[in-house]
User: Fold this.
Amino acid sequence: MGGTEEYRHTVEGVMDQEHVFAEENLPAFALGALEEEESARVREHLKSCPQCQATYHSYERVATALAYAAPLYDPPPYLRNVIRALIVSQSTQPSAPFEERGKMWKSLGQMSRFLLVITILLAFGLTGWNLTLHQRLSAMQDEMVSAQEMGEVLMDYMKNPDAYDSYIISGRASSPSPRALVVRDRTHERFLLVLEDLPTDVGPAYFIWLVDATGRHIPVKKVRCNGDGRAVLMFESPMPMEMIRGIRVTPVGREDASPILDGHFPQDQGYPGLLASNAL
Amino acid sequence: MPMQDLSDVELLRRVAKGDQEALLTLYDKYGRLVYSLAYRMLQDHQLAEEVTQDVFTRVWQAARSFDPKRSSFTTWLTSITRNRTIDILRRRRVRGLTGAGEAELNTAITRADERFIPEHHLEALAVREALEQLPPAQREVLELAYFQGMTQREIAEYLNIPLGTVKTRMRLGMMKLRDLLESKPSPDGKKKRRGENEASGKVTEREGA
Assistant:
């Protein structure tokens, strides 16, 4: 009995110590200002002490109120759309029929970054149809989930836009609807390509070709567009970028037919020049 | 009932069921608060955007786990915001970068606001007034802890004062701030009572002492 009593006193003593410790440290705990070991002690005590729980909640409300002491700023207007895009992409299974989906379309979180980059492109002054492109891209949020690799490129692009070139390739006079937005990452020698309004009547799959300085066409990727004629892809340059003169897109199975998109990077503006146009 | 008239808890219930509009309504209501808090802590608009985006994504993913009996939605939301932002601040410190906001320490809370946003006006006004009534030394440690994510030990090193002094200032500052805020009427005109759960509107427990 004596031993039991002694044990009980010891336990009570430890509990009192823990109570005193927690009570003294609850304000700092509510602010997240304790070291991890101290936080763990307080957290453990809170599990079994209603009195400290109530005190903690009162300090927790103070900590919450401190958030209102920050000067208030409006977030940029596009952020709402980015968040919308992000949750939509997380709500639905990706329906995008991209061929690379299995290995590339992994990171849901990168979708918003993609849209941010498109917004940045707009901010850099790209013209009318790009706005349409952006809006349409926003509308395809629920069928797109971007890739980790693509997200990295886009984040880099946002942080360091000078390291990238952006180009627009518009459709030929005979088939004006297809368009492509090309983001060229010079540092890592890779391309991000956004294709829109690809004609679905010639088939859902397309070859992407690079055109080198000698006029040779090098196939780099096959891509499948969705039912609305859209596709997004990224690929590494198979040769030094300065040797690449253009990009063309042809329907699979009809490689000998005229390309539906055929853009040449401007050489007279120097390497980082802006805007390729399609030869008519 | 229009979405914007629903309570936070009801909106969050809808979010948990996959209602995107409910999440966007919460964003409309609290996006500025989250963004402003992240910006205040990081002094970087791009990072503040990323944090805001992450926070609302987290709300979307974790709405089911929110328990209104444990805390209010704003407490939960600002905790997520601070945790995410403090991660960034601590990585910065590990990399030897000083907090971008340090130059503004002791000024952000007391300076006149750029703009008040109507739905946050009362809360902002109340907390600012309360903070102004604290001794500057107490206000300073609270600000370093809250907006810079510093622990008491880090604050002691930063200010080059004993750890015990930091603990005392923090404790007294928080106690006084709590008393000041509880003595003010909340936006609905009622005085807050200690132990009142904001989210459920029920008094759950009363502090003993």
Notes: The radius of gyration of chain A is 29 Å. The beta strands of chain A are 164-172, 175-185, 190-196, 205-212, 217-224, 231-236, 244-251, 261-264, 277-278. The longest strand of chain A covers residues 175-185. Chain A touches chain B through 50 residues (CB under 8 Å).
